[in-house]
Design goal:
Blueprint (H helix, E strand, L loop, with lengths): L22 E8 L2 E10 L4 H11 L6 E12 L1 H16 L3 E5 L4 H8 L8 E2 L2 H8 L12 H18 L4 H8 L4 H11 L13 H5 L10 H12 L3 H17 L40
Parallel strand pairs: 2-3, 3-4, 4-5
Antiparallel strand pairs: 1-2
Helix pairs in contact: 1-2, 5-6, 5-7, 5-10, 9-10
């Protein structure tokens, strides 16, 4: 996916030439629901990409939707209005939106426009999660990859059985954090070697190919979500069965993983040489698996 321009722009200025592919939107699972990460330029020309993602997630019933803007090098008023409209819709159904802004252009812009007086704005994703859980500790992660795999498979069995009776609940469950995510998050927080994405610590991420589109398991989750949305329960179950087989058969790393080091590197979405993901912006959170 294309990144926005690396040149810093004045907040609030509209660039008519900005193209839709100058905004990258990634989705990962978070402790309290999906985290949508925006990188590049959020403008009149690109805000539809974010709007499409919000429209996709809002019906799933998560209590909180977090949008991370710390990777944006430019935001205009139309981009902000997309966020505020999404916040309004969530609030009408008793749910919340949290923003992560970092310490650069997004944070300054939200402060100048008074957005931080309308909805909560945090410097980093982990600070947002801490506030949402009431400053308490994060629930303990599984002690081993074997336990994390077993708990993840159990969640997918529940999702598979829930599809026909309550598809919206199934969608909510499949876009929430799994046990594999919890253990990967612990390892990411304890890392002693450079790593941009917590997915780099997850065996499932690497079993899927370790590409950018595998962050947050999106390469396998999106086809399942699409099948559920289309009412094709049979296709959704078939794809879930395939994913569960991958999880059951993937190699684990209890013995050969160096403490504090990721399992491997990340392949770009286009394939080719395996390279680490570029370091994230200051204030940004980790990527999920």
């Amino acid at each position: 996916m294309a990144r926005g321009s690396e040149e810093t722009k004045d907040a609030g200025e509209i660039h008519p030439e900005a193209a839709p592919d100058r905004l990258t939107v990634d989705r990962v699972s978070g402790e309290y629901g999906p985290v949508v990460r925006c990188s590049g330029e959020l403008t009149l020309q690109t805000s539809g990409i974010l709007q499409q993602e919000l429209d996709r997630l809002e019906p799933m019933g998560h209590a909180v939707l977090t949008v991370n803007l710390s990777g944006c090098d430019f935001i205009d008023v139309d981009g902000l209005m997309t966020l505020l409209e999404g916040y309004r819709r969530l609030r009408e159904t008793g749910r919340r939106m949290a923003l992560v802004a970092g310490g650069g252009i997004p944070g300054r812009l939200l402060q100048v426009l008074g957005v931080d007086g309308i909805l909560p704005v945090f410097p980093r994703e982990e600070v947002a999660a801490l506030a949402l859980r009431g400053a308490g500790p994060r629930p303990p992660a599984p002690a081993t990859w074997e336990e994390a795999r077993d708990r993840t498979l159990q969640r997918w069995r529940v999702i598979r059985e829930t599809l026909a009776q309550d598809p919206e609940e199934a969608l909510r469950l499949m876009t929430s954090m799994f046990a594999l995510c919890d253990l990967s998050e612990d390892l990411f927080e304890e890392r002693t070697a450079p790593a941009h994405a917590r997915c780099q610590f997850c065996p499932l991420f690497h079993a899927l190919g370790g590409r950018r589109q595998d962050l947050g398991c999106r390469s396998v989750l999106e086809p399942i979500v699409d099948a559920v949305r289309a009412g094709d329960t049979g296709l959704a179950r078939s794809k879930i069965d395939g994913l569960m087989q991958t999880i059951a058969e993937m190699p684990l790393t209890e013995d050969d993983q160096t403490p504090g080091h990721p399992l491997g590197e990340c392949v770009p979405a286009t394939g080719g040489t395996r390279v680490l993901l570029e370091p994230g912006p200051a204030g940004g959170g980790s990527d999920d698996s």
